[in-house]
Every structure is written in C-alpha cells, then in structure tokens.
Design brief:
The chain has 281 residues and is α+β, with helices and mostly antiparallel strands. The chain has two domains: 2-132, Malonyl-CoA decarboxylase, catalytic domain (Aminopeptidase); 139-280, Malonyl-CoA decarboxylase, catalytic domain (Aminopeptidase), CATH 3.40.630. It contains eleven helices and ten strands. The strands form three sheets. The chain has a five-stranded mixed β-sheet with strand order 1-2-3-4-5, sandwiched between helices. A three-stranded antiparallel β-sheet has the order 6-10-9. A two-stranded antiparallel ribbon has the order 7-8. A hairpin with an 8-residue loop joins strand 2 (43-50) and strand 3. Helix 4 packs antiparallel against helix 5 (158-171). The model has no long low-confidence stretch (mean pLDDT 89). InterPro entries: Malonyl_CoA_deC, Malonyl_CoA_deC_C, Malonyl_CoA_deC_C_sf. One of its GO terms (biological process) is malonyl-CoA catabolic process. Residues 2-248 form the Malonyl-CoA decarboxylase C-terminal domain. One of its GO terms (cellular component) is peroxisomal matrix.
C-alpha cells in the first residue's frame, strides 16, 4: 500500500518540498537553495507515500549520483547543482534518510525504501557501486566516556596520560588546526571507531543506530573516513568521522543472516586493518 515517488523541483508541490526540507534530520538545509541543489540533475530524492495521505511523504531518502564513492560530505552537499548537466554516474550514494512522521519512528519503512530506490536507480543507470556516506551518531559520546574512564582508572600510567591528552584535543577540536594534535588523535580515534562499529552491541546488534539499520539491510562496513564532516553537528556526533556502507546486492541476504543470527558484522579488509590482529580475527 506504499508508493515510491521521486520528488523534483519542477513537478512536486511546494508544500511537499517544504515538508521534506523541514524534516531533514541528518544534514540540515539552510533554505530553499539547499533543497534545490539536492534536487539537481546529479541528485535524487525519493519518498514513500500512502494512499490515505497522498501529499505527505512518510520517509525520505537523498541520493547523489557520482563517479566515485565520496570520502567527505562537502563532495555531496553545499555544491551548486541546479545548472549542472546530468553526469554518467557509476556510483549511487545514499547520504540521508529521514522519517517525517514521529508516530512511525518504530516502523522500519527505511529498509523497504532504500532497496526500492536501489532497484529504481539500477534501472535508470549502469551503476557499479551502491554505497552510503553515513554518520556515527553515538560515537562521540561513547568514545568520550571511554576516555574519561581510562583517564580516571589509569591515572599516572602512559595509558591514562594518553587519555587525558586525547580528551583535551577533542574537547576544543584542537586537532582541526594543529598537525601535531591530529597526529595523536587520528590513529587512536579511527581504531576506536572500528571497535565501536564492529564490536559494541546492544542485545546482540550494533549499538550505533545507523550501523544497526544498514547492517540489518545486509550492507558491509566498507570504509571509515577521517575529516568527513567537520561541521558543528558532524564533530558533535562523531568527531568528524563518517562511514561508507557498501550495498553489494549479491551478498545482502547472506550478510543479513550472519548479522541477525550471529551478531557478526560484515566488514572490509580496510576496516579490519584498523583493529589489532586479535580483534580483527
């Protein structure tokens, strides 16, 4: 009873577009100009609607059509799109999915939407890659707590001293403008992000809600990206780190089964290399 609908600047009623703009929860839009860019020729916005609410998008997915898998949000948003000609894309990037109806928050419409959109885009383009560029919304709070505990419990040791240094660098984002601070923060934080995504669980499934969503879909944790979103919200959510989840249609079912039954996360060798050898095995 749900319909997949592509939203466009020219054909979609302004009231529907305004609803989409206001409901965007992942990467906020400053105004109508931002929305128009996200509806440009190299972008796609899809929504699920219901016959009982024909003018009301229930859940909205934003996709970028590109020739590579992006490593940072500036490659996708805040780029003028309205007057660019269509490209010949090889990659579809899902970078935002938002539920516009709070009452449907526990209804898993997003799983259905992302697979329907993938099918539609594969009909339209000769795509080789389907990926996301996703935040780690709980990572910053998790890692800050972990460092506080380490600094307190290991005070006076090299591990405790390192935790204190990291907390200072992260508290004021000093690493953004200091190469020496970044050299300390980056390797530790990237490894911590891999541990967080692959090993931190709640009731057997990923602690991070975005990871739980994509892994349940059967996606692979493919790449972690440093300085991917250094906006205020990006730093607050995950200290600027973002993750690409890969949607390989041939392995979705197997990945889903192993994840749901065994709690095992499908991850690329690149992500596993961030861990210690014992953790990776």
């Amino acid at each position: 009873m749900l319909d997949l609908r592509r939203l466009t600047w020219e054909a979609t009623p302004a009231a529907v577009l305004e609803r989409v703009k206001d409901a965007e929860a992942v990467h906020r839009m400053a105004g109508w100009g931002d929305l128009r860019d996200r509806l440009g020729p190299r972008r796609r916005v899809f929504a699920l609607t219901h016959a009982a609410m024909p003018g009301e998008p229930l859940v909205v997915l934003h996709a970028a059509l590109m020739t590579h898998a992006p490593e940072a949000m500036p490659e996708i948003i805040n780029q003028p799109q309205a007057h660019l000609p269509p490209c010949d894309p090889t990659t579809a990037v899902f970078y935002s999915i938002s539920n516009t109806q709070p009452g449907l928050a526990r209804v898993e419409l997003g799983h259905f939407l992302i697979k329907k959109v993938a099918t539609e885009l594969l009909k339209e383009f000769d795509l080789q890659t389907l990926v996301t560029l996703s935040p780690l919304p709980g990572f910053a709070a998790w890692v800050n707590h972990r460092l506080l505990v380490q600094a307190r419990e290991r005070s006076g040791t090299p591990e405790g001293d390192l935790a204190e240094r990291l907390l200072v660098h992260l508290e004021n984002d000093a690493w953004l403008s200091c190469h020496e601070a970044e050299a300390v923060v980056r390797p530790w934080l990237m490894r911590a992000a891999a541990v967080y995504l692959l090993w931190e669980k709640r009731r057997g499934l990923a602690l991070d809600p975005v990871a739980a969503f994509h892994l349940k879909n059967g996606a692979t944790c493919w790449r972690l990206n440093w300085r991917a979103d250094v906006s205020g919200p990006g730093l607050e959510r995950s200290h600027g780190i973002m993750v690409n989840y890969m949607y390989d249609l041939g392995s979705l079912e197997a990945n889903n089964r192993v994840y749901v039954v065994q709690g095992k996360v499908a991850a690329s060798e690149e992500v596993l290399r961030l861990l210690d050898k014992d953790e990776a095995s």
